Amino acid sequence: MHLLKLIFKQIIVLLKEPNYFEHYRVFFLSIIENFNQIFDEGFTQQLLRIYPIRLLVNVGRSIYFVDIMENLAVLESPTADVGKNAITHNLSAFENFQTFSIPRVDRLIKPFSSIELLNSNSSILVIGPRSEDDLLCLLGYGFKHEKIRGFDLISYSPWVDLGDMHAMPYEDNSWDAVIVGWVFNYSKAPANAAQEIIRVARNGAIIAIGIEYNPLTDEEIQKMYGYSIDGSRTQSVTDILNFFGESVDSVFFNHDIVAMQKDKQSELMVIFSLKK
Q1: What is the pLDDT along the chain (276 residues), one digit of tens a residue?
Q2: Per the confidence metrics, is the pTM higher than 0.70?
């Protein structure tokens, strides 16, 4: 963005001034002299905000870790709180790019990144990323990769720990923020998962949650996929906040379903701070 502004600024100068070639020379000298400032690490990271670029990185890394290194692992003994077809459903996403990497996490991370209680050194746990897309998106908004961990029932990435969100291996008060991306519907007991999130998060931590709202009945979903996820159905942001009960402090962002969208598949999203 800074580079584009600089270019357009210089174009205007060139159009207004008769001494075209002199300004042309000065312009390119300024690019060369300020190359490191313009194309710094932040500029490179910001490219990851662009989904097609992020997809290329995501797919390239998955090919390396899944197909070449054969690192794909599946949690063998999840708790009884996990829907019986949760792992099968997510493994099926590896069959094509459209389901493997869905860009909906951008909708949650954009408002998440604007909260001033967070900074580039904040430790962030991402539950249920499936691929590395959620983690790459966070990098695009300036968070440090060494401060970010993924956690999922399946993993091929060195950035994603294998496990069950109902029984996480992390110590109490470990994280400054927890992002729960579209996984509560795979849980039979989301309130139990919420208690685990409360445990591993620090007091005042930022919790960001996205859940798919689907107007279809369980029978219609089973007919569509040939099986049901066997998890919970969350119908509103209020339902999400109720999982956390009195631990909800300030709500920073709320995207609920309005009446005119009740018959459409949509997203429930909420970001709030935690009090313990």
Answers
A1: 455 555 556 555 555 555 655 655 666 666 556 655 655 667 778 889 999 889 989 988 998 999 899 999 999 999 999 988 889 888 888 877 667 777 888 999 999 999 999 999 999 999 999 999 999 999 999 999 999 999 999 999 999 999 999 999 999 999 999 999 899 989 999 999 999 999 999 999 999 999 988 777 777 777 776 666 777 888 899 999 999 999 999 999 999 987 667 778 788 999 999 999
A2: yes
